[in-house]
Amino acid sequence: MTVGSRAVNGGNGFAVTTSHPSSSGDGLLPPRRHWALAGLWAAIIMAVLDGSVMNLALPIIARDFTISSASTTWLITSYQIAIVMGLLPLSALGERFGYHQVYCSGLAIFVVASIGCAVSTGIAMLAGFRFVQGLGAAAIMAVNGAQMRLAWPSGLLSRGIGYNAVIVAGTAAAGPPLAGLLLSFADWPLLFLVNLPIGLASLLLVTHFGLRRPAETSTFDGIGALLNAVSFGAIFLGCSELVHGAPQLRAAGFLLVGLLLFLALLRRSARQERPMLPIDLFRFRRLAFAYGASVCAFAAQMCLLLALPFLLVDTMRVPVAAVGLLLLPLPAAIALSSPLAARLADRRWAGLMSGAGLALAAIAMGALAFLADQAPPLSQIAAIMALCGAGYGLFQSPNNNVMLRTAPLERAGAAAGMQATCRVAGQTVGALIAALALHLPQSGPVLSLYAGSGLALIAALIARGR
Question: Mind telling me which residue stretches traverse the membrane in this protein (predicted)?
Answer without folding.
Answer: 38-62, 74-94, 106-129, 135-152, 164-186, 192-211, 223-243, 249-266, 287-312, 318-337, 349-372, 378-395, 420-440, 446-463
